[in-house]
Design a protein that fits this description.
It contains 11 helices and 2 strands. The chain is mainly alpha-helical and 285 residues long. It has one domain.
Length: 285
């Protein structure tokens, strides 16, 4: 069944309900949604940059304010925690910098993913647009901010006179996997939070708790008796796939295997959920 909403002479939105369709038909429509989003990649890029420009409108430094605040936090926490953990500043500062920059991307992504569809309710109700385009817009916007914050990592490497070397190239496949996982996370949380508006506070609490149980402020080597439990934490495995190479280290095979396993489960869950509820998202928002 389809419901057509007319907005003027040239605007029409078609919202589809899948109640009488098989799951295979829903998957075909989900694949079509994804293909349309890929075809409109220029629009996605433009919208992501527009979001950043609007967010920092009137600001002289724009998103570099986040870079400065992150840099100040790294400087303050690096000195303090290197003393608390009895670790050399030159050894601890690069680890803390990479960890905070990457975790900033994760935490912001989870927060904005909850509103990826709700925040675009006007667009979704007015014109026919792929839902995956809205999700990709959120991911791309956060990737641009992450690119700004990478400047801090380069500055700290210059300060401590270190370099990741050729091992840093291993961060590229890790980043590619992060982009895929980020899109899956936005699709899942965007749909669930559009239906259940009490989920965002739960997500915020889970992310905050995960920050303390994941090696972000503390190094994994400090956990002696329970190091075997670290791969159980998906945040740790995905962090290591990028953090390790940026620190000049090669991640372990366990981290790669666990990270890939969690990614496959995440993508499968995102695809199943999106194919099942895609036709209802426009009604939920």
């Amino acid at each position: 069944m389809s419901i057509a909403l007319q907005r003027g002479a040239a605007t029409e939105v078609t919202l589809e309900l899948h109640s009488g369709q098989s799951f295979e038909q829903r998957q075909r429509q989900a694949r079509r949604d994804l293909r349309e989003a890929v075809r409109l990649w220029r629009l996605c890029w433009t919208l992501a940059f527009l979001d950043i420009r609007l967010r920092y409108r009137g600001s002289m430094l724009g998103p570099f304010w986040l870079t400065l605040s992150t840099g100040a936090m790294v400087a303050a926490m690096g000195v303090l925690y290197s003393e608390l953990f009895h670790i050399s500043l030159h050894e601890y500062l690069p680890f803390l910098t990479v960890s905070l920059v990457l975790w900033g991307f994760i935490s912001t992504l989870f927060s904005e993913a909850c509103y990826s569809y709700v925040a675009n309710d006007g667009v979704i109700r007015t014109i026919r647009i792929p839902f995956t385009l809205c999700a990709a817009r959120t991911v791309l916007r956060n990737l641009v901010v992450l690119a700004h914050n990478i400047v801090i990592v380069a500055a700290v490497d210059l300060f401590v006179r270190t370099s990741p070397g050729l091992a840093g190239l291993l961060a590229i496949p890790g980043l590619a996997l992060w982009i895929i996982d980020a899109l899956a996370i936005v699709i899942i949380l965007g749909a669930l939070c559009a239906r259940f508006r009490d989920i965002p506070p739960i997500v915020a609490s889970v992310v905050q708790m995960s920050f303390f149980v994941t090696p972000v402020l503390w190094k994994p080597q400090l956990v002696t008796s329970y190091q075997w439990l670290l791969p159980v934490n998906p945040f740790y495995d995905l962090l290591e796939m990028i953090r390790g190479p940026l620190l000049g280290e090669i991640p372990s095979a366990t981290a790669y295997a666990a990270g890939l396993g969690y990614s496959l489960l995440l993508c499968a869950a995102a695809w199943f959920l999106f194919a099942r509820v895609r036709g209802r998202i426009a009604f939920w928002i």
